Amino acid sequence: MNPVIAGALRQVRIETRIQLLSLTGLSWLLWPAIGLGVLFFLRDTSVMQTSVSLAQLGTPGVIAMYIVTGGLLGIAGALSAEREDGTLLRAKAVPGGIAAHLLGNVVTYGLVALLPVSVILVGAALTVDGVLPTTADRWLLLFGVSLLALVSTMPAGAVIGAVVRGPLAMGIIGMLITASLAISGIFYPLAALPTWLQWVGQALPTYWVGVGLRAAILPAEASVLELHGSWQLGTMLVMLLTWAVVGAIAAPIALRRMARRQSGSAVSAARERVLTKGY
Q1: 48 φ, ψ to 5°?
Q2: Using the 8-state DSSP alphabet, how is residue 204 labeled?
Q3: How far is CA 101 from CA 4, 178, 250, 273, in A?
Q4: Minimal CA–CA distance to 72: which of 180, 168, 144?
Q5: Which of 74, 142, 156 is nearest to 113 (CA)?
Q6: Which residues pair with 46 in a beta bridge?
Q7: pLDDT, tens digit only, all 279 positions of the chain
Q8: Is residue 194 within 8 Å of 201, Cβ to Cβ?
Q9: 211 close to 225: Cβ distance less than 8 angstroms
Q10: Which of 51, 175, 230, 240 is the most buried (most CB within 10 A)?
Q11: Residues 240, 224 contacting (CB under 8 angstroms)
């Protein structure tokens, strides 16, 4: 087997086990549980005088939030931490090297990002009416949009992890990404926001991931809540693929630059900074 593929598979087995059996793994169950609790209490509240409840609208929104933030921050946080603790430097010495390690991280954090989706779908189906796809093509759309969401966000997360240095900077990036959810239209119709924020929201992949998930989960009449009164699945596909292509071009450049700069002196400098400044 190709050393890169073999190394990546080994990395996936190890990292996935760590993620699922550690306190980090428990958080992937805790936060969906909190989200399900909120959805349960909103199940009887309608949206903008329609038959769609806030719980129905919120279910694809919560799923979009977990996939997008997992795709962006999961791989970004891992790369940033591994660059400074020497993990990436040590990866150079094993078969497949950094390429295998990075591929393993992509697969691992992709799986981890999708884990809450199954928890939310099962839990919401038991507590809220009308939150599951009703036909085979809608299930296919749900699955396809979820994968496309990862493909369009993980390269951007890799760029962030390769460029941003230190936990303080990563914390600021995380807050900015979280804040962007407020104007993404995944929790409340984008039409309710000022026009200039609507344009900003439509430039983000989060909005289009939400559009695809809502089209898969919500009843057809819910499309009246969208900006143009329809799901705009064609535009969704173009926008997410654009993010994916741009990320696929930028990520290898950023990762090669990061790999070239991996050295013992760089790791020592990072350790010294933590000891002196605390971050």
Answers
A1: 50, 50
A2: S
A3: 8, 27, 19, 25
A4: 180
A5: 74
A6: 53
A7: 677 777 778 777 877 777 777 666 666 667 777 777 777 777 777 776 677 777 788 888 888 988 888 888 888 888 887 777 777 767 666 666 777 777 787 888 888 888 778 888 888 888 887 788 889 999 999 999 999 999 999 889 888 988 887 778 888 888 888 888 888 888 877 877 888 888 988 999 999 999 999 999 888 888 888 888 888 899 999 999 999 999 889 888 887 787 777 666 655 665 666 556 555
A8: no
A9: no
A10: 240
A11: no
DSSP letter string, 161-190:
HHH--SHHHHHHHHHHHHHHGGGTTSSS-G
Question: Would you list the domain boundaries of the chain?
Answer: 3-277
CA distance 143 to 162: 29
Q: How far is CA 120 from CA 123, 160, 245, in A?
A: 5, 28, 29
Residue the block writes with tokens 């119709």: 189
Token pair 């909190």 is at which residue?
Answer: 34
Q: How many C-beta atoms lie closer than 10 Å to residue 230's C-beta? A: 13
Hunting for tokens 């013992």 — which residue is that? 264
The neighbour count for residue 241, using CB atoms within 10 Å, is: 13
Give, as one character, the DSSP assignment of residue 191: G
Coil vs helix vs strand at 142? helix
Q: Within 10 Å of residue 3's Cβ, how many Cβ atoms?
A: 13
Q: Three-state SS for 43?
A: coil
